[in-house]
Amino acid sequence: MSNDIAKQKAGEYAATLVEDGMTIGIGTGSTVYYFIHTLANKTKEGLHITGVPTSAQTAQLARSLNIPLVDLNDVAQLDLTIDGADEIDPSLNLIKGGGGALLQEKIVAAASVQNIIIADESKLVQNLGKFPLPVEVITFAWRQTQKHIAQLGCSNIVLRQKQDGIFISDHGHYILDCHFEQIDNPALLQQQLNNIPGVVENGLFINMAAKAIVAYSDGSVKEFVKP
Fold it and tell me: Which residues participate directly in catalysis (predicted)?
């Protein structure tokens, strides 16, 4: 079974967890794409939900599929957020932000009663860090911020690019992709990064996911609950 089919199965499975009347966070990424399409079909069939998107890309897709959206400022909390991840460790700590939406993703996750991650089996790791850790930084003096991050033991830090130049996040910031290779203490690193002047947010999501729904190449889907 291809990766895309596995992602589709994870997205379809996650949609079964959404109940009528919920206000939900709608994540960003290739696996969530399938969740959004499945959710749209359910709303056509009569499911009543309201969504809060985690990125401009997600908002555009959801609106095109007639999923009702609301601003996070207009709700007290979210019942549930469904989102993807770039890496998931056995404690359900995550690296997120490969798509560039980590800041809004973390804000939405923090506003949610429950966060559920959907992914294919390739995202499961024993230790976080092989995937470059995205760190969102303000554009002013970003090289100084980069130097401070390097002092935490990261020697390879790349300013994210896109086809026509530097990648700019939805909120007008740069993203530094930091190659730590292995992060032995994710909670400590998260704190150290966010103490650096110029860092807006980082892609470590620690103790935020309650459950991970993982699809495998053999067609099976497995739930992992936070230990």
Answer: 105
* Residue 217 annotated as part of some ligand binding site: no
The model's pLDDT over 198-212, given as tens digits with 9 standing for 90+, comes to: 999 999 999 999 999
CA distance 185 to 210: 20
In a domain, 37, yes or no: yes
Same domain flag for 46 and 118:
yes
Alpha-carbon distance of 191 to 163, in angstroms, equals 32
Domain with 137 in it: 133-200
Mean pLDDT of the chain: 96
Sign of CA dihedral 169, 124, 81, 195: negative
Q: Looking at the structure, do residues 9 and 66 belong to the same domain, yes or no?
A: yes
Tell me how far apart the alpha carbons of residues 23 and 67 are, in angstroms, rounded to a whole number: 12
One-letter amino acid identity for 98?
G
How many domains would you assign to the chain? 2
Q: Is the pLDDT assigned to residue 1 strictly greater than 70?
A: no
The set of long-range contacts for 150-153, using a CB threshold of 8 Å and a minimum separation of 24, is 152/189, 152/192, 152/193, 153/180
Reply yes or no on whether 105 is catalytic.
yes
Catalytic residue among 105, 136, 201, 223: 105
Contact 183, 203 (CB under 8 A): no
Name the token pair of 146: 């980069």
| Residue indicated by tokens 């359900």 | 92
Same domain, 18 and 37: yes
- Residues 107, 68 within the same domain: yes
